[in-house]
C-alpha cells in the first residue's frame, strides 16, 4: 500500500480485495489518512491493521469539549495518547472551533466585499463557492493559504 497518495487503493485482505479510501490529512502532522468502508456508511480505521497509527484516522469532535464546530481530522498517533502530542492536537482543534464561532455573517460579507473591490475579475470561483455554501472550515483554510486571518476582515 502506498501512503503518499490521495487516491483510493485496493489491498489484498483475507483472500479478497478491500478498498482503502483516502480521508484527508492529519491537521497536526499532515500524514495522509485512510479508512476501509465497512458498509452502511461505517469505516474501519484500526491502527493495529495495515494503516498503522500514522495513517489511521481519528476525529476531534467539538461537542466532546463543550464547543461547536466540525469534526477535526487527526491521525491515531496524534490524537489518541494523553500526552504532549495529544495536547498539541487538541489545541489545534480548539483554535479551529474558536475561529469558526467568531466568524459571523458580517465577516463573511466583509471577505466577499474585500475580494470584489480588489479583483478586477471578480471573486475567485473556489472562494465564491465557499462563501455561498457558508463553508467556514474550508474558508478558514483558504484564507490561511494566502496568509489572511479573520482579523483582516473584522471591524
Query: What structural class should be given to the helix and strand makeup?
Result: alpha+beta
Any idea what the shape is?
globular
Strand order of the largest sheet: 1-2-3-4
Largest sheet: number of strands, sense, barrel closure: 4 strands, antiparallel
Q: Into which percent range does the helicity of residues fall? A: 25-40%
The SSE order reads EEEEHEEHHHHH
Determine the mean pLDDT. 81
Helix count equals: 6
Low-confidence stretches: none
Radius of gyration: 18 Å
Can you count the beta strands?
Answer: 6
Strand content: 15-25%
* Integer count of domains: 2
* Beginning-to-end CA distance, first to last residue: 49 Å
Written overview of the protein:
The mean pLDDT is 81. The longest helix is centred in the middle third of the chain and has 19 residues, at 84-102. This protein is 39% helix and 22% strand. It folds into two domains: 9-81, no CATH class; 103-152, no CATH class. A four-stranded antiparallel β-sheet has the order 1-2-3-4, with no helix packed on it. It has a two-stranded antiparallel ribbon with strand order 5-6. The chain is of the alpha+beta class.
